[in-house]
Amino acid sequence: MINEAIQQQINKGEMLPLMEEFYTIQGEGFHTGKAAYFIRIGGCDVGCHWCDVKESWNAKLHPPTNTDTIVENAKKYANTVVVTGGEPLMWSLDYITTKLQSLNLKTHIETSGAYPLSGKWNWICLSPKKTKLPLNEIYNEAHELKVIISNNHDFKFAEEQAAKVNTNCELYLQPEWSKREKMTPLIVEFVMKNPHWKISLQTHKYLNIP
């Protein structure tokens, strides 16, 4: 059980259920190839069956960590910090992003958009899921829409989601890793017919880095 004092800090974002943090190369989407410090926060109820970090789903498995400590660790490395999960917007991210930006660090988030947007962001990657759709408020804020393609119907879902984002939002289709051999050729064909989309690959997996 978490005591009341710690729970209050969690509610304020002064503590977060940290699963892991690491310095690596961004492997997906618009910022592929850039060095970034990743902060993975535990907790997610979106429930993607193909999720490759299901151990992040149960926030209780990841002890509340002092956010100031997380920020101190981040500032030792890259000038870009990516907050991911799990579903990071289950938690208040105003405190951590204010601290990071005060150090002139760029703040990026990867989210399903299923929870209210908090935090100050230089880049918002919206990756919507059918199991729990984004809230309407995030569509106009997203800089990047990244839709995971694991079957043919996902192309229709992708276009439905693209119709909701702002006109400057970058659009990406990414093959679900376990079906990449089957779906990648279909994505290539789709993008060639619909050039407003781009292809995102999980290049970090091809490079065998975290």
Low-confidence stretches: none
Q: Note the beta-strand portion.
A: 15-25%
- The helix/strand class is alpha/beta
Helices and strands, in order, run as HEEEHEHEEHEHEHEH
Q: Give me the side-by-side strand order of the main sheet.
A: 3-1-2-4-5-6-7-8-9
Oligomer designation: single chain
The main β sheet shows up as: 9 strands, mixed
End-to-end separation: 32 Å
Mean pLDDT: 94
Helix percent band = 25-40%
* CATH top level class name: Alpha Beta
Number of helices: 7
Instruction: Estimate nothing, just give the exact number of structural domains.
Output: 1
Catalytic activity: 6-carboxy-5,6,7,8-tetrahydropterin + H(+) = 7-carboxy-7-carbaguanine + NH4(+)
GO molecular function: 4 iron, 4 sulfur cluster binding; carbon-nitrogen lyase activity; magnesium ion binding; S-adenosyl-L-methionine binding
Binding site for [4Fe-4S] cluster: 44, 48, 51
Domain Radical SAM core: 31-210
List the helices and strands and how they pair.
Blueprint: H1 4-12, E1 15-25, E2 35-41, E3 64-66, H2 67-74, E4 80-84, H3 94-102, E5 106-111, E6 123-126, H4 136-139, E7 144-149, H5 153-162, E8 170-175, H6 180-193, E9 198-199, H7 203-206
Parallel strand pairs: 2-4, 4-5, 5-6, 6-7, 7-8, 8-9
Antiparallel strand pairs: 1-2, 1-3
Helix pairs in contact: 2-3
Enzyme class: lyase
Family: Belongs to the radical SAM superfamily. 7-carboxy-7-deazaguanine synthase family.
Protein name: 7-carboxy-7-deazaguanine synthase
